[in-house]
Specification:
This protein has 4 helices and 2 strands. It has 162 residues and is mostly helical. It has one domain. β1 and β2 form a beta hairpin. α2 runs antiparallel to α3 and α3 runs antiparallel to α4. The longest helix has 25 residues. It is flat and about 75 Å long. The termini are far apart.
């Protein structure tokens, strides 16, 4: 048996011990894993073209793939309990951090830490805006339903006559 609990605008599904946990679709696991593999390969390419040895580049790419894959899988696991804005912020933070890291290893001399942080913040903000737009315009596909259904806040307002 499954019951729904509303928390901060999000609906969290609680499962009965007899039915077991909710099964995720294969795409929910495959997309973060594929993104992590691509990010790891991109890290290898960027680090190798910036002058690192092949072994160092592959080690760095493996570490980047494992870390980004673990964070991506964790985000996919908890995203159904997050409200729309927090979920978009989480995707923006993950993307911005990854892109800021890639920007920091892009050159042999290396950009300053402030340039890498600035690039990560800019790209993270863009990802936040895109994610928020997608989540808001595709409400029927959101795992927790609509954040604030239209007309719900107007139903409780008493009418006054002048």
């Amino acid at each position: 048996m499954e019951t729904s609990v509303h928390r901060h605008g999000a609906t969290v599904h609680q499962h009965d011990a007899a039915t077991g946990p909710h099964r995720r679709s294969p795409a929910a696991t495959a997309l973060p894993v594929a993104a992590a593999v691509l990010f790891g390969l991109w890290t290898v390419f960027v680090d190798r073209t910036s002058g690192s040895s092949l072994g160092h580049a592959w080690l760095l790419g493996l570490i980047a793939a494992v870390v980004s894959g673990a964070l991506g899988l964790a985000l996919v696991r908890v995203q159904s309990s997050l409200i729309t804005e927090v979920r978009a912020l989480a995707y923006g933070a993950l993307f911005g951090t990854a892109m800021g890291y890639l920007y920091s290893i892009a050159h042999a001399s290396g950009p300053s830490i402030l340039e890498s942080v600035r690039m990560g913040l800019v790209l993270g903000a863009v990802m936040f805006a895109v994610s928020l737009y997608v989540f808001r315009t595709h409400r029927t596909r959101e795992p927790h339903g609509q954040h604030r259904p239209r007309g719900a806040h107007r139903a409780h307002r008493p009418r006054t006559t002048h």
